[in-house]
Design goal:
Keywords: Transferase. 31% of the residues lie in helices and 24% in strands. The protein has 191 residues and is α+β, with helices and mostly antiparallel strands. It starts with 5 loop residues before the first strand and ends with a helix.
C-alpha cells in the first residue's frame, strides 16, 4: 500500500518520523493540551501511540498523519501535532466507522491549522477512500473541538453517549457524536 501524504496551502500531512516522537510526548504530558483527555501520558505510552499511528499509515496508506508547517523551510520535518482518519474502536456504539481527529501543540492553536488539515482529510476520505460518512466525537465539555467539527461541515447527531472506557461519573465520560456524509460534504464543496 502506498503511504499517502496530503498537502494544504500551509501544511503537510505526512508519515510520522522518529524526530516527531519527543514533541508528541511533550504534548501528551502537557495538562493544557490534555485537558479533555482522562490523563496525561508517559513518554513510553506516547511512543506506543505514535508507533501505532505510524504503522497504521504504513499498513493502510492513511491514518492520523503527522502535521508539519510548510513555512518552516529550515526544518521541513517540524511537527505540530496530528490530524487524520482512524477506524473507530469496536466498543463504541457507532462502530464500525471511520473517525476524524486531531491534536495540536498549543503553540499552534487558534490559527486554523486543525480546520485546514481536517478539510484535507475529509477530501481524502470521500474522494480516495470513497467513504459514505465520517464521524467525530469528543467530551461534551470540549467546545474547541466541537467548533472545528462545525467548521468542517459536520453536524451534531444529538446521539450523546458515555465513552465505554470511562466511568459514567467521570467529567469527560459523556460524549457528543458529530457526522458528515459524503453527500453533505459534496454539497458544501459545490456551494
Amino acid at each position: 500500500m502506498n503511504v499517502e501524504s496530503l498537502e494544504t496551502q500551509r501544511l503537510y500531512l505526512r508519515q510520522w518520523q522518529p524526530s516527531d516522537f519527543a514533541t508528541f510526548a511533550a504534548m501528551n504530558a502537557d495538562p493544557e493540551i490534555m485537558r479533555y483527555f482522562p490523563k496525561l501520558l508517559s513518554a513510553a505510552v506516547s511512543d506506543v501511540i505514535a508507533n501505532k499511528c505510524q504503522q497504521l499509515i504504513k499498513d493502510n496508506g492513511w491514518g492520523f498523519w503527522a502535521l508539519s508547517l510548510k513555512s518552516d523551510l529550515k526544518k521541513a520535518d517540524n511537527f505540530i501535532g496530528f490530524v487524520g482518519l482512524n477506524a473507530t474502536h469496536a466498543d463504541l456504539p457507532f462502530a464500525p466507522s471511520v473517525e476524524i481527529g486531531w491534536r495540536l501543540h498549543k503553540d499552534y492553536w487558534g490559527q486554523g491549522y486543525a480546520t485546514e488539515a481536517a478539510q484535507a482529510s475529509l477530501k481524502f476520505a470521500f474522494e480516495e477512500l470513497h467513504l459514505t460518512e465520517v464521524v467525530a466525537f469528543t467530551a461534551v465539555i470540549n467546545r474547541p473541538s466541537q467548533k472545528v467539527m462545525l467548521r468542517i461541515g459536520m453536524t451534531n447527531t444529538q446521539d450523546n453517549f458515555y465513552h465505554p472506557m470511562l466511568e459514567t461519573n467521570h467529567v469527560l465520560a459523556k460524549h457528543v457524536l458529530y457526522k458528515i456524509t459524503q453527500e453533505q460534504w459534496r454539497e458544501a464543496m459545490d456551494s
